[in-house]
Amino acid sequence: MLDQAGRVRMIDVTQKAETEREAIAKGKVQMKPTTLELIRRGEIEKGDVLSCAQTAGILAAKETSHLIPLCHPIPITNVAIEFCIPENGDSIEITATVKNVGKTGVEMEALVAVSVTALTIYDMCKIVDKSMTIGEIRLIKKSGGKSGVYIASEQNRK
Does the structure show a pLDDT above 80 at 1? Predict the structure, then answer.
């Protein structure tokens, strides 16, 4: 938001009511099937890819206000990172769910969690597959606050 002089400013949430809030974001890392198989077998040189990526995503959610200008620092009550890996696939789908009770939502925290989780997967696996791609990062659902519930349309959820 811009102030009267046209400068960027943080939104004032002082008068907003505290509500229970939740945001769910998703993203995907595409890779060679052989890379995914190495992850499954725990044979990536740097170690347990999914545990490391999960930890990185949780930590990133907690640090969002340090990464995104004008993003409020907020107390987070829960962060969950989950992976969906199709049996004979070539991708890992990441889902981040972030919750809090506060005056502002946790959408950015969920999106940052997915992004850093995906980047960590890339970093740990780039030695065997530099062609990996990261994409489809999007907000799936958010609830709480004055604007209520948002659910992405079906075409945006895939």
Answer: no
Q: CA dihedral defined by 35, 94, 120, 79, rounded to 10 degrees?
A: -150
Report the half-sphere exposure of 37 (CA within 13 A, side-chain side): 4
Active site residues: 123
**Alpha-helix residue ranges (DSSP H) falling in the chain:** 33-41, 49-62, 64-67, 107-125, 154-157
Amino acid, res. 128: V
52 token code pair: 């490391």
Q: Which domains does the chain have, with CATH numbers?
A: 19-157 (3.30.70.640)
Nearest to 112, CA basis, from 73, 86, 157: 73
Of 146, 122, 61, 137, whose CA–CA distance to 97 is shortest? 61
What is the predicted pLDDT for the residue at 87? 87
User: What pTM does this model have?
Assistant: 0.92
